[in-house]
């Protein structure tokens, strides 16, 4: 870790407070903003630090952009930096969504309120499309024949995920886990790979998150979102259809 970093904790916190306040487009767009602002323009974060943070954020379930910000706060300022960045990034959107929820609950029947939300949604889709393209290039490689030959397995995982998600209209958690484990085994096989011992604890822990739970409506909602935050990979773009399936279709 380079101690001669080019920014203070206050500067980084204010940046993520601003990003959390006016950054539109969801997690994919936000991680693109972070790269453009902190890596390309301000040069606060190195390309390697950004790539490591993005890889870790993609590996873990939950909000991609928030996790990336927390990691970048941790790079030079450890636990304090991670905590401040996390709160600064999440707090503005929490307050705004709370207020918007109250407004929509009270006035959602008005046509002009609905029109505002639909207009914002259409604009955000364009931002997400461009950011998704850029994120694909950073995560997998350039869209050319040479890249596809050298990283054919990553492109295969990418195409399979697109096709399966499109057909099933659901996020397949086991697909992400299988892709990660398979690539690990091929590129960096662990020493225990040849062992016949099977660690069943991880499987039991994974399945435990999908047990049905009968209780009051409030408790069921709380448990559902705990499950979503713990086991849903792919951040906001993946969690939206997951929430629709669970909150609207399954639990009404």
From TrEMBL:
Keyword Transmembrane helix: yes
Pfam families attached to this UniProt entry: Chromate_transp (PF02417)
Keyword Chloroplast: no
Subcellular location: Cell membrane
Superkingdom classification of source: Bacteria
Membrane topology field: Multi-pass membrane protein
Parts of the chain that traverse the membrane: 12-34, 54-72, 79-104, 110-131, 152-167, 197-215, 221-243
Annotated keywords: Cell membrane, Membrane, Transmembrane, Transmembrane helix
Family: Belongs to the chromate ion transporter (CHR) (TC 2.A.51) family.
Name of the protein in its database record: Chromate efflux transporter
